[in-house]
Each structure stands twice: as structure tokens, then as C-alpha cells.
Specification:
The chain has 353 residues and is of the alpha/beta class. The protein has a single domain, classed as Alpha-Beta Horseshoe (pyruvate-formate lyase- activating enzyme). It has twelve helices and 15 strands. Helix 2 links the parallel strand 1 and strand 2. The N terminus is likely disordered. The protein binds iron/sulfur cluster. The site of iron/sulfur cluster (SF4) has 8 residues, from loops. Its EC number is 4.1.99.14.
């Protein structure tokens, strides 16, 4: 191997650029709609108009799989009509809808089932309506604090260079005595958010995992070292920081994998990060429907989804999910909790589910 090859820097994960962009005609009445239109034109992207962001039916592709892959590279710019927010337990009271869909290809992602036949990416231009609705939810609960989760249906950091919406929500919450924001990301493109006036009302979380999980199940997202570097920048910008270890996956060598994860966080994060740090832990779960979809979309996946090995947990609305047997779940929870407290004794563990 030539020295040139050995020393050539590894290219970083690039920002998302769609192949196709659809606009609802009314979206052009908003400055955000116009800005995205200009951006798409400058990028030389194929632009179409559509009557509704909920009805993109003519995506190219000869097979279901091909259509799915193209949908993941399709951006739809529209107006958010439903302003009733979903609840978002246990991490927040409400989900704030600024985008739907994601360009990542995480095999286990629940969006595969929740978005059904509409895996394309939607961003909404009517931010005043969305923030107005958030204001009402905040006012209803005063003097309680109301927390909003911005990453329930998307990874908004990965779309920020296109929409700029996350910064708007961060700055809105910065001014709210009783409103707080949180979101999680697997992308490292945090630059546009570093100078936002967050007033420490936004908890910026990164999704992290054992190497085995990131390498095998998270294609199309930023690499671990990129996420950690970004977490350092975010901590230096004064944001409260958090990590979500999810999905926690039982695999050969999991103890070493999760111990190394915590060790790397400890070694690579700047001192500021430890000041106000939270961890959330979510064990891997799947439904029967999810399993069917995942096996079709990622036929070679190594994701273990053997119902026989799992415990069935009844759901509130019908279909339950398969989680780890208690013994395994306890072992994962106890081991990772110990590792967290060993490295970050001041951190708060919010939940394990
Ligand atoms: S980055 Fe998050 S939202 Fe996107 S595919 Fe992966 S798990 Fe799903």
C-alpha cells in the first residue's frame, strides 16, 4: 500500500442531499418554502410539485425495495396541518412535529413501521403555526414545565442545513419560562446550532452505542467519533448534554462493547460535558410487524429478532412487543449503569426501558 493511501484522511459523513424534491404549492407562500426551493435549484435537484405531502405516489423504482431506497432520498416540503401533538413518554410530554422521516438506514428504526408506506422525508414550512401550538401546550400546564421532543419522527439535526427549523424551536424554547426542548441525533452536523440562543432550555442528546451496533445496524448515519466530536462542541456551546444508549443489543462481547463505549466517551469528551449530563437507556425491542418489514428492507441484516428468545410485553393499544428476558434485561441495565457511574459519577440516568 502506498504511503499516500495510508495517510489520506478518511472522508467524513456528508450532509444529506436528496435526489428528488417535492413541494406543495402552498409551501411557496412561506419564506422557508422559497428558501428550500432556491437551495434545491442551486443543487440541481429534480423538483416536482405535489398536491399533498401525504400523497407521494409516483416515486420511481421497479421493486418495493428500490422504491423504499428512493423514498429515503426524497424530500417533501409541505404544510403541517395536524397541530395536535402526540405524547412522548418517557422522555417528554409532547412530540413537536418539525419533520417526518429520515435519511438514515438504521435497521431497527421504528419509523419503518410507524411511517408505513410513506418513508420519504417531510419538512414543514409553517413554523409559526407549530410554535403557536407549542405555546398553547405550555400555557395549559403552567406552572409545570412542559418538555417537547423534536426527534420522535425524524432526526432533525440531519435536516437542519435544509430547513433551519430546529434552531427556530431552540430559540423559541430559550425564551419560554415553562417550555423545554430535547432531541436526539445520530448526525454530527451541529454547526448551524452552536450559536443558537438556547438559554440552556434545550437538552442536546446524541445516540451512541457499542461499536458492533453502529457498524452493523446504522448505515447512513455519522460515525461514532464524529458524534462524540460534535457532542464536545455542543457542550462547549453551553447546551445541557445527554446520551441515549439505544437500542441496547445483546451480542457476543456486549460487556466489552458497552464498557468501551463509556470509556471512549470519558476519554474523548471535554470537561464541560460532564457538568450537566444525562443518560437514557433503551433495550432493543421489536413487534411482529416490524420484523416483517425489516426482513424485507434489510434482508441480510444480522439483527436478532427471534421471538422464542424474547419476552412478550403487552402493548397499550393492541400489538405488543418483544423485549429481552428479564434476566438479560437486568444484566444489561446493571452493567451499563455501573459503567456510567464509574466514568461519570455526577450524571443522571433518566430511565432504562
Ligand atoms: S437516524 Fe434515527 S430516525 Fe434516522 S433511521 Fe436511524 S434511528 Fe431512524
Amino acid at each position: 500500500m502506498s504511503t499516500e493511501l495510508l495517510t489520506r484522511p478518511v472522508p467524513g459523513t456528508t450532509v444529506f442531499v436528496p435526489e428528488l424534491v417535492y413541494f406543495e404549492p402552498d409551501a411557496m407562500n412561506y419564506s422557508k418554502g422559497q428558501k428550500i426551493y432556491e437551495w434545491a435549484k442551486q443543487q440541481g435537484l429534480e423538483i416536482h410539485m405535489t398536491t399533498s405531502h401525504n400523497q407521494i405516489r409516483d416515486l420511481p423504482g421497479d421493486s418495493e425495495l428500490e422504491k423504499y431506497r428512493i423514498a429515503k432520498r426524497t424530500l417533501v416540503v409541505g404544510i403541517r396541518k395536524t397541530l395536535k401533538f402526540d405524547t412522548s413518554k418517557p422522555s417528554a410530554e409532547y412530540a413537536i412535529p418539525i419533520a417526518t422521516g429520515c435519511m438514515g438506514h438504521c435497521h431497527y428504526c421504528y419509523l419503518q413501521t410507524t411511517l408505513g408506506a410513506k418513508p420519504y422525508i417531510r419538512v414543514y414550512v409553517n413554523m409559526d403555526d407549530i410554535l403557536g401550538a407549542a405555546q398553547k401546550y405550555i400555557d395549559e400546564r403552567v406552572p409545570e414545565i412542559t418538555r417537547f421532543e423534536a426527534a420522535c419522527t425524524s432526526d432533525p439535526v440531519g435536516l437542519e442545513h435544509i430547513s433551519g427549523s430546529l434552531k427556530q424551536v431552540i430559540e423559541f424554547m430559550g425564551q419560554q419560562e415553562h417550555g423545554r426542548l430535547r432531541f436526539v441525533t445520530k448526525y454530527h452536523h451541529v454547526e448551524p446550532l452552536l450559536d443558537a440562543k438556547h438559554n440552556k432550555h434545550t437538552r442536546f442528546r446524541f445516540s451512541v452505542n457499542a461499536d458492533y451496533v453502529i457498524k452493523n445496524f446504522e448505515p447512513g448515519t455519522s460515525k461514532f467519533h464524529e458524534r462524540i466530536e460534535a457532542a464536545g462542541k455542543v457542550a462547549k456551546a453551553g447546551y445541557p448534554l445527554g446520551f441515549i444508549i439505544a437500542p441496547i443489543i445483546w451480542h457476543e462481547g456486549w460487556e466489552e462493547g458497552y464498557a468501551t463505549l463509556l470509556e471512549r466517551l470519558y476519554n474523548e469528551l471535554p470537561a464541560e460535558a460532564a457538568q450537566d449530563l444525562t443518560f437514557e437507556m433503551i433495550q432493543h425491542r421489536f413487534t411482529r410487524t416490524a420484523k416483517n418489514v425489516i426482513e424485507k428492507r434489510y434482508p441480510k441484516t444480522k439483527l436478532e429478532m427471534d421471538e422464542e428468545k424474547r419476552k412478550y410485553k403487552w402493548g397499550r393499544w393492541g400489538q405488543g412487543k418483544y423485549v429481552y428476558q428479564d434476566e438479560q434485561a437486568n444484566a444489561l441495565r446493571e452493567f451499563i449503569t455501573e459503567q456510567i457511574f464509574d466514568k461519570f459519577p455526577q450524571a443522571k440516568i433518566e430511565y432504562f426501558t
